[in-house]
Amino acid sequence: MAEIVLGMATSHGPQLGIPGDRWSVLIDKDQKDRRMDYQALLAKAPAGIEQEITLDKMVARYESCQRDLDTLSEVLLDAKPDVLVVLGDDQHEQFGDDNMPIFALFNGEEMPVVKRGSRGPRDADSPGFANGSWNQFRVERPEPDKAYPGQPTLANHLIPALCEAGFDVARSNKLREGVGLGHAFTMPYTRLMNSQPIPMVPVMINTFFPPNQPTPKRCYALGKALREAIEDWSSDQRVVVMASGGLSHVIIDEEIDQMTLDGLRNKDANALCSLPVDRLNLGTSEIRNWIGLAGCVEDMDMTLIDYQPCYRSPAATGCAMGFAYWN
After folding, report:
1. For residues 2-27, b (16+ Cβ closer than 10 Å) or e, as one string?
2. How many CB atoms lie within 10 A of CB 317?
3. Residues with Cβ < 8 Å from 91, sequence gap 6 or more?
4. Would you say residue 323 has pLDDT above 70?
5. Coil, strand, or helix at residue 267?
6. Which of 106, 117, 204, 300 maximizes the CB count within 10 A of its CB?
7. Which residues pair with 170 in a beta bridge?
8. What is the model's pLDDT at position 216?
């Protein structure tokens, strides 16, 4: 039977790809983002925020995050996985408001990639908001010539197993032309695999878009069902399960981050399933991916590599970065 040899969780926010001395270019994006009131956030910014957005502190946090990603990469490659199952959120990349499943699995042979910046335009209401002028400051990572490898054998085992467990999952074996694989799933390839592409099963969770976002309790249950299904797969494959995204952003909420990390560290399923859903919004909603992973690796021990609240503006916007693994 297959074996889950490792669990991993990583942030994937844009500040990981923009050097710290350039984070301030994102202020213009934040001011125009119609999903939040920047001026209201500015008016109630916490005391001492100016000390969190000094050039030295932003550079130090960026460099720390790069070291954390290097550590995660080493942990991943040392585990010698045959396949990754990645829990991530689709941000209007494959699914739109005309059809937004709560859970979906990709069961195709390969996953085409479209180079960042060449996708169609998005407006500020879209979480990805990928084509701002600040893209010029990104540190680009190598992209594949054609596509990343899928793992349809495992995906086609997981889909009926999850249905049997009570999860009516959607499935797709094609990605939208001109869009390709979503950023939650490209980031592990471009930053963690060091040009050693590992086959992947993307598990897409609708963390962002109401009214059919899954509850934390449902995400945890999904993780448990995934573990049972993976371990029931008649294969000798070594499997790594990864959560991609989070922690709190675009508005940093260090309290909800610590509630999440404490629940993960203490294997406290009740605490994780009881996280307040009214605070799991915008990018902070990606905490649901970490909760799903927790259900999958609840018998493993967590190692928190680092937590960095990466503020970038006087309004306390930014992305709180977290990096952890379970074995």
Report:
1. bebbbbbbbbbbbbbbbebebbbbbb
2. 25
3. 126, 127, 128, 182, 183, 184, 208
4. yes
5. coil
6. 204
7. 104
8. 98
- Would you list the DSSP string of 117-137? T-SPP--TTSS--TT-GGGGG
At 203-235, the pLDDT tens digits run 999 999 999 999 999 999 999 999 999 999 999
Range of the domain at 259: 3-326
How many domains does one find in the chain? 1
Among candidate residues 17, 19, 10, the one with its CA nearest the CA of residue 58: 19
Would you state the structure tokens that stand for residue 22, as one six-digit string? 């350039």
Pairing of strands 200-205, 249-251: unpaired
Look-up of token digits 């021990």? 301
State how far the alpha carbon of 289 is from the alpha carbons of 6, 11, 103, 222, in Å: 16, 10, 11, 10
Check residue 180 and give left, alpha or beta (phi > 0: left; psi -120 to 50: alpha).
left
**End-to-end alpha carbon distance in the chain:** 18
Q: Average the pLDDT over 179-190 and give the result.
A: 90
CATH code of the domain containing 90: 3.40.830.10
Q: What is the average pLDDT score of the chain?
A: 91
Residue 261 has pLDDT above 60, yes or no: yes
Asked if residues 25 and 149 have their Cβ atoms less than 8 Å apart, the reply is no
pLDDT at residue 118 is higher than 80: no
Tell me, letter by letter, the H, E, C secondary structure of 149-171.
EECHHHHHHHHHHHHHCCCCCEE
The pair of three-digit structure tokens given for residue 130, joined into one six-digit string = 């990928």
